[in-house]
Backbone:
C-alpha cells in the first residue's frame, strides 16, 4: 500500500531495478489474436521446460528477484499480427514469428542458454534475415508511443508498469501541477481525439471544467465498433494501466472523481485486464479515497456493451451506462454540459487517454514536434486486407498512405495490384492510387473528402468488387442503425435494397442517382454520426469506381468475379464430350444437348449452383 | 434579453424566451412540419422534418436548437424541399396506404403532410407490415402497421403518466413500439387513459369505437336507449361542429341525440351532484375521525387503475364513491327496472378509460353492466356527421325528466379542480358561510399540473391538493410517503388539465384546451343552482330510489388486481 509520494517513488525505483536485473526476458504476445494462435500454450511450455532444466524463471516481477532470472511475461500486442504467435527475447531484441510450442525447446537452448538467434524463426524477406525487431521493415517507419509498453512488459502487472515509470505523469499532475496547468498543457499539445472526431481534447476538458455543476465524470469509449479495427482492444489488453492513468489525470484536471470505461462485450480479455488493473491499483493505494495522502479520490467502473455499434456514439454510450436504450439524443445539451447522468462529462477514446501520460511526461512542445502542426502526435492503425503484413501499427501523423501500405505493409499480397483502401470503416470513404501520397492526418484527409476515423485500414487489391464493398458496409450500418430517426432507419434500408439488387443483376441505371439522392438526404438530416456517415462508402465508391456500378447494372457482370449472382457458367465446346452427366445433375434442367455433341447451358435458367461444374469428368465447364 | 434577433427567411425576428427555433419561426408566421414534437413532452428530434438551413448551408433541427442572436436561417430552400419529400417518401414506403378505409383519415398527420408537400409518388417498394391489431383493451386499439415510430406515445406514457406500458423494442428497421414481451396491452400496466391515442399522429393507436353497436341498438325497437352526457363533452365540440367559440352546445346535443333515436337524454352532472354529496359526507366523517387521510377522489378510472397497479396499499384511501357516470347509471337502472323495453344505458364521455370502467365487474349486476357502453365525444361527432345533421342549424332542446336538474358544481367536474371546488362548496355550507363568490377559489382553478389550497372549515384547516397527470400524482404521493407534504383531500385526474383534455375529445392544442375549462366555468355561472345539495332532485332521489340503498347503489368496493 502506497501512502504518499515517497512511497510511489520508492516503489518505482525498486521495481525498475528488479526489472533491469532480470537477465533475460521472454515476452510472449498475449493479445487476443496470438492467444487464438496458441501463445498461451507456448507460455506454459516455456515454464515447464525451464522447470525441467532448473532455470530460474519468474512469472511475476519480485521486489528482490533472484540472480540469473529469466522473466517470462504475457505481453501486449507486438503488432506484427500476420506473423503471430510472436515472441520477443530481451536483452537481444530478437523477434520470433509463427512460433509453435514445439519450438520452445530450441529457443530455450539456443537463445536463452546460449544467446544465439534461432534464424528459422526470424522474419525473412528476399533472402535477408532480420533478427532484431527494430530492423524489420514492418517496424522501421513506426513510432510506437501509445503502444510503447505493448510487447515490452507483462500486461497483467502493475509492478512492471511502475518499472517503466508508470504513474509518473499522474504523480506529476497530482503534486506539481494545478488543474488549470494540466488543461493548458493538453491544449497546447493539440492532442486531438483519436476516436475519429479529432476534437481537441484540451478544449473538451476545459469546457467540462468551467461548468457550474460540481459532479463530473470521465468516460472512456472502448466500444470500438468498426469492423476490423482493433487498436483500442490491443491498448486495453496490452497496457491497461496506461488508460487508467490517462483517465485519472483527466479526473484531476476536470474535478471528477469517477471514471467509467465502456468496453464492448465482445472484448472479454480487455474487460478482465482492465478489471485486474483497477484491482491492483486499488491494492497499491493509487486508486480510492485520498490517494497518496492528497484530497484527490477516484474510482472506476467498467460497463460492458451489449452488441450495438451505435453505442459507440457519445450520447448513446452514456444512455447505455445509465441503463437506458442505446439511442443517441439531440444536442444541445452537449455531453460536456450534460452528459452521463446529466452531469458534465469528458468522453474520450481509449487511444486519446493513452496519449495523455506521455504528453504530461514529455511536455506539449515535444508532442507537437511529431507530425504536422495541426495534427500532432502519432496514430495507431489496424492494417488489414490484401496486404503482406497485416497487423497493428503506430505511425507519426503525416505519414503517407504509400509509406503505410508499401513500406510498412509490404505491399499487396500475391503480387496483385493495389486498387483502393477503405479508411474509417463503415463511416469512411475509399482512397485510390491517386491518393497514395496523401499524408495521413485529420485535415488532409478531410480535404480529400475522407476521414481517419478510428484507424481501421482495409487494403483492397484488383480482385475486389467495389460495389460489394459498398453493399457490405451498408448492410452493416443498416443493421446497426438504432432506428430512432427516419432518414437513417428507413434510408439505409432502401440504400441496401438498391445495392443488393445491383449485385444480383437487377439494377437499373436510375439506381445510381437514387443512391446519391438518398445519400445526400441521409447525411444531411440524420440525427447522429452513424446516420450522417453511413452513406460515405457508397458515395465514395460511386465517385471513384462508377464504371464498376455501370458494368454491374448494364452488362450484369462483376469485373472482379466476386458477385455470386453475376457469375456465368458455360461449357467449353472444345472440351465437351457430350456425355450428359452434367444435364443429369442440373436441378433446374438448364443443360441440353445431343449425346456425343457439345452441350449448352441455358443462361436464363441457370441458378449458378455449380453442380455441373463439379460433376464434369472432363473439366469442360467453367465459370466466367 | 431584448435586442436579440434571428433572421428567418430574410425577416428579422426578435428572440424573447422561445426555447427553440420552432417556436421562434412561428412568430415569423411559418409553421414547420413536425411529427415528433409536442411542447408538453421532451424534445425527441427523430422525425427530422423540422430541419432548417442556415446561411452557411448547415442543417439544424428546429425543435432541438435554441435560438441564437445573429443566426440566419431559411425555412424553404430547394434542399429542404428535397429532404422533406424524401423523408415523407421513406415513411410512406413502409406504411399502410389504405387511407380511404382508415379510421384516422382526415385527421392523420402523415396524410396531411404528404398532401402539403405534394407527394404524388413513392419510389420505393412498399414494405408495410401486414396489419396486426391488438384489440385486447376495451379502451384503445393498436395497429403496428400504421406506426411511424415518432415515439410520442412512448414519451407521454412515460413522462406524463409515469406508466411506461409501451416502449421501443428492437433495433433499426426492425424497431417497433410495443409492450414488454409484446404482450397484448390489456395484460400490461396500461391504465387506459388513452393519452397515447391522443398524441398519436397516425392511426397506430386509436380510441376504441363502440359506434357500430350503438347504431344497432338505436334502431332496435325492443330497446329503450338512454344516454347521459359528461360535463366535459359539451365544451369540446366547437371546432368540428361549426360551433362558435364559447357556446355551451348542450341544448343542441340533446336535439341531435333525440333525432338520432335516443329515447331519453340526461346529464352526467346529476350523477356528479350525487358524488359531491356522498364524497363530502365521506370526507367529513374521515376528517372527524382523522383516519385514512388523505382522501383521494375516485371518479377517474385511469387513476384508480394506477393506484391498483402501483400503490395498492393506498386503495383504502381512495373514496368508496362510484364515479358520477356509474352513480347515475345505477339510479337509471333502478328507475327503468319495471320498463317493458330492454334498457340500454349509454354514456358520452371525453374519455377512453370510461370504456374500461363500464366493463369492470364491480359495475355489473348479474353480469349486466350498469353502463352498457361508452362512446366518446369524437364518436358522437362522427355519428352526427354520418346522420347528415347540420349541427349549427339545430334548435336547442331541454333534457328529459325526471333527471333534468343539476347544479353548477356538477358541471365543473370536467376540468381539473372542479371536483374539489364542488366539494368545498358543500363543505363550507356546513358551516354557514359568506357568499360563495366572495371566496378566492382561484387556488383551485387553472391548468397547472399540481395546485394546492388550504381552506378553513369544520373548525380546522383543510389542506387540499389538485393534481392532473399521473406523473404529478406520483410525485405528490412520494412526498406524502416521505412526510415532506401532508394533505387531507387530493383530487387526481389522469389527463393533464382534467377531463376536458381526455383522449376521447377532439384533438386540440394547449391554448384551445385551456379555453374549454373557461367555457365550463361559464356554464357553471349560468346555472341557478351552484351547490350540489341545493339541487331539489337530490332530495327526491334520497327519499325515493336511494332510500336504504345508498351504499349498494352509490358506493363500490374494488377487487384489487383483477382486470
Residues:
Amino acid at each position: 500500500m502506497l501512502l504518499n509520494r515517497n512511497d510511489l517513488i520508492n516503489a518505482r525505483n525498486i521495481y525498475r531495478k528488479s526489472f533491469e536485473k532480470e537477465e533475460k526476458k521472454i515476452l510472449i504476445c498475449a493479445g487476443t489474436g496470438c492467444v487464438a494462435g496458441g501463445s498461451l500454450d507456448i507460455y506454459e511450455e516455456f515454464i515447464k521446460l525451464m522447470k525441467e532444466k532448473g532455470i530460474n524463471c519468474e512469472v511475476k516481477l519480485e521486489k528482490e528477484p533472484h540472480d540469473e532470472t529469466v522473466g517470462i511475461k504475457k505481453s501486449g500486442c507486438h503488432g506484427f499480427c500476420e506473423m503471430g504467435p510472436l515472441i520477443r527475447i530481451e536483452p537481444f531484441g530478437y523477434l520470433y514469428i509463427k512460433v509453435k510450442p514445439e519450438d520452445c525447446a530450441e529457443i530455450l537452448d539456443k537463445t536463452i542458454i546460449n544467446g544465439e538467434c534461432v534464424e528459422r524463426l526470424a522474419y525473412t524477406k528476399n533472402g535477408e534475415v532480420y533478427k532484431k525487431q527494430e530492423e524489420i521493415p514492418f517496424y522501421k517507419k513506426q513510432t510506437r508511443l501509445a503502444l510503447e509498453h505493448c510487447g515490452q512488459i507483462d500486461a497483467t502487472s502493475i509492478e512492471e508498469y511502475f518499472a517503466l515509470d508508470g504513474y509518473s505523469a499522474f504523480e506529476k499532475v497530482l503534486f506539481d501541477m494545478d488543474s488549470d496547468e494540466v488543461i493548458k498543457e493538453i491544449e497546447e499539445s493539440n492532442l486531438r481525439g483519436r476516436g475519429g472526431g479529432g476534437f481537441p481534447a484540451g478544449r473538451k476538458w476545459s469546457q467540462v471544467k468551467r461548468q457550474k455543476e460540481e459532479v463530473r465524470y470521465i468516460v472512456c469509449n472502448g466500444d470500438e465498433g468498426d469492423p476490423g479495427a482493433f487498436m483500442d482492444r490491443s491498448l486495453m489488453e496490452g497496457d491497461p494501466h496506461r488508460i487508467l492513468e490517462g483517465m485519472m489525470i483527466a479526473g484531476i484536471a476536470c474535478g471528477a472523481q469517477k471514471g467509467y470505461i465502456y468496453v464492448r462485450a465482445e472484448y472479454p480479455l480487455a474487460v478482465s485486464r482492465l478489471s485486474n488493473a483497477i484491482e491492483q491499483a486499488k491494492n497499491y493505494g493509487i486508486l480510492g479515497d485520498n490517494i497518496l495522502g492528497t484530497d484527490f479520490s477516484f474510482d472506476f467502473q467498467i460497463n460492458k456493451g451489449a452488441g450495438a455499434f451505435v453505442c459507440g456514439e457519445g450520447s448513446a454510450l452514456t444512455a447505455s451506462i445509465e441503463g437506458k436504450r442505446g439511442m443517441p439524443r439531440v444536442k444541445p445539451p452537449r455531453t460536456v454540459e450534460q452528459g452521463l447522468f446529466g452531469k458534465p462529462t469528458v468522453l474520450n477514446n481509449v487511444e486519446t487517454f493513452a496519449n495523455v501520460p506521455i504528453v504530461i511526461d514529455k511536455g506539449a512542445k515535444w508532442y507537437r514536434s511529431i507530425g504536422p502542426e495541426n495534427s500532432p502526435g502519432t496514430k495507431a492503425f489496424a492494417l488489414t486486407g490484401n496486404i503482406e503484413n497485416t497487423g497493428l501499427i503506430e505511425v507519426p501523423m503525416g505519414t503517407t498512405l504509400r509509406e503505410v501500405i508499401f513500406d510498412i505493409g509490404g505491399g499487396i499480397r500475391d503480387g496483385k495490384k493495389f486498387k483502393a483502401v477503405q479508411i474509417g470503416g463503415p463511416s469512411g470513404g475509399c482512397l485510390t492510387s491517386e491518393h497514395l501520397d496523401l499524408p495521413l492526418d485529420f485535415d488532409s484527409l478531410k480535404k480529400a473528402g475522407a476521414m481517419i476515423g478510428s484507424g481501421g485500414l482495409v487494403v483492397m487489391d484488383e480482385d475486389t468488387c467495389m460495389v460489394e464493398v459498398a453493399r457490405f458496409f451498408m448492410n452493416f450500418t443498416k443493421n446497426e442503425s438504432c432506428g430512432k430517426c427516419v432518414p437513417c432507419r428507413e434510408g439505409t434500408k432502401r440504400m441496401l435494397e438498391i445495392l443488393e439488387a445491383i449485385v444480383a443483376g437487377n439494377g437499373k441505371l436510375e439506381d445510381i442517382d437514387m443512391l446519391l439522392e438518398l445519400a445526400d438526404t441521409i447525411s444531411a438530416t440524420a440525427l447522429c454520426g452513424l446516420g450522417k456517415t453511413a452513406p460515405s462508402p457508397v458515395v465514395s465508391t460511386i465517385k471513384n469506381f462508377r464504371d464498376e456500378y455501370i458494368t454491374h447494372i448494364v452488362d450484369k457482370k462483376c469485373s472482379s468475379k466476386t458477385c455470386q449472382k453475376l457469375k456465368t457458367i458455360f461449357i467449353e465446346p472444345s472440351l465437351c464430350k457430350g456425355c450428359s452427366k452434367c444435364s443429369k445433375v442440373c436441378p433446374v434442367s438448364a443443360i441440353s444437348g445431343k449425346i456425343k455433341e457439345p452441350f449448352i447451358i441455358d443462361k436464363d435458367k441457370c441458378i449458378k449452383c455449380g453442380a455441373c461444374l463439379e460433376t464434369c469428368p472432363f473439366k469442360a465447364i467453367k465459370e466466367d | 434579453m431584448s435586442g436579440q434577433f434571428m433572421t428567418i427567411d430574410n425577416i428579422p425576428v426578435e428572440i424573447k424566451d422561445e426555447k427553440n427555433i420552432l417556436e421562434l419561426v412561428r412568430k415569423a408566421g411559418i409553421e414547420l412540419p413536425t411529427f415528433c414534437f409536442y411542447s408538453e413532452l421532451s424534445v425527441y428530434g427523430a422525425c427530422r422534418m423540422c430541419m432548417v438551413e442556415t446561411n452557411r448551408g448547415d442543417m439544424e433541427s428546429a425543435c432541438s436548437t435554441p435560438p441564437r442572436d445573429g443566426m440566419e436561417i431559411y425555412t424553404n430552400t430547394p434542399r429542404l424541399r428535397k429532404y422533406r419529400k424524401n423523408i415523407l417518401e421513406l415513411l410512406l414506403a413502409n406504411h399502410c396506404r389504405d387511407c380511404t378505409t382508415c379510421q384516422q383519415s382526415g385527421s392523420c398527420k402523415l396524410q396531411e403532410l404528404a398532401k402539403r408537400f405534394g407527394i404524388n409518388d413513392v419510389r420505393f417498394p412498399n414494405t408495410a407490415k401486414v396489419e396486426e391489431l391488438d384489440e385486447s383493451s376495451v379502451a384503445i386499439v393498436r395497429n403496428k402497421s400504421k406506426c411511424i415510430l415518432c415515439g410520442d406515445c412512448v414519451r407521454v406514457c412515460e413522462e406524463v403518466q409515469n406508466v411506461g406500458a409501451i416502449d421501443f423494442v428492437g433495433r433499426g428497421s426492425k424497431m417497433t413500439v410495443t409492450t414488454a414481451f409484446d404482450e397484448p396491452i390489456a395484460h400490461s400496466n396500461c391504465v387506459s387513459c388513452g393519452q397515447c391515442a391522443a398524441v398519436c399522429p397516425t392511426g397506430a393507436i386509436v380510441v376504441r369505437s363502440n359506434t357500430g353497436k350503438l347504431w344497432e341498438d338505436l334502431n332496435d325497437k325492443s330497446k329503450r336507449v338512454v344516454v347521459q352526457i359528461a360535463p366535459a363533452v359539451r365544451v369540446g365540440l366547437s371546432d368540428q361542429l361549426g360551433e362558435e367559440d364559447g357556446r355551451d352546445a348542450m341544448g343542441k346535443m340533446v336535439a341531435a341525440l333525440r333525432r338520432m333515436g335516443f329515447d331519453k337524454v340526461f346529464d352526467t352532472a346529476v350523477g356528479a351532484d350525487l358524488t359531491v354529496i356522498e364524497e363530502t359526507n365521506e370526507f367529513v366523517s374521515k376528517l372527524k375521525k382523522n383516519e385514512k387521510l388523505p382522501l383521494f377522489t375516485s371518479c377517474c378510472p385511469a387513476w384508480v387503475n394506477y393506484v391498483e397497479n402501483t400503490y395498492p396499499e393506498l386503495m383504502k384511501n381512495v373514496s368508496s364513491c362510484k364515479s358520477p357516470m356509474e352513480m347515475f347509471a345505477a339510479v337509471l337502472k333502478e328507475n327503468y327496472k319495471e320498463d317493458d323495453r330492454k334498457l340500454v344505458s349509454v354514456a358520452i364521455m371525453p374519455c377512453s378509460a370510461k370504456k374500461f370502467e363500464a366493463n369492470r365487474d364491480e359495475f355489473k349486476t348479474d353480469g349486466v353492466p350498469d353502463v352498457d357502453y361508452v362512446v366518446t365525444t369524437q364518436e358522437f361527432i362522427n355519428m352526427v356527421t354520418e346522420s347528415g345533421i347540420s349541427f349549427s342549424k339545430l334548435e336547442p332542446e331541454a333534457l328529459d325528466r325526471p333527471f333534468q336538474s343539476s347544479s353548477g358544481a356538477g358541471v365543473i367536474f370536467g376540468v381539473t379542480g372542479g371536483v374539489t371546488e364542488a366539494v368545498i362548496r358543500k363543505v363550507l355550507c356546513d358551516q354557514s358561510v359568506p357568499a360563495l363568490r366572495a371566496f378566492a377559489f382561484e387556488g383551485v382553478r387553472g391548468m397547472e399540473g399540481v395546485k394546492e389550497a388550504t381552506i378553513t372549515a369544520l373548525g380546522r384547516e383543510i389542506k387540499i391538493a389538485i393534481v392532473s397527470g399521473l406523473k404529478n400524482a406520483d410525485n405528490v404521493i412520494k412526498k406524502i410517503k416521505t412526510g415532506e407534504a401532508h394533505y387531507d383531500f387530493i383530487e387526481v385526474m389522469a389527463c393533464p388539465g382534467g377531463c376536458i383534455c381526455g383522449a376521447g375529445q377532439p384533438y386540440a392544442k394547449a391554448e384551445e384546451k385551456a379555453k374549454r375549462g373557461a367555457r365550463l366555468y361559464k356554464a357553471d355561472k349560468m346555472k341557478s343552482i351552484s351547490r350540489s345539495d341545493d339541487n331539489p332532485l337530490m332530495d327526491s332521489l334520497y327519499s325515493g330510489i336511494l332510500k336504504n340503498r345508498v351504499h349498494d347503489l352509490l358506493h363500490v368496493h374494488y377487487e384489487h388486481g383483477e382486470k
In short: The mean pLDDT of chain B is 90. Chain B touches chain A at residues 43-48, 51, 59, 61, 63-66, 79, 82-83, 86-87, 90-91, 93-94, 123-125, 127, 148-149, 151, 167-168, 170-175 (CB under 8 Å). Residues 198 and 503 of chain B are 5 Å apart (CA to CA). The first strand of chain B starts at residue 5 and ends at 8.
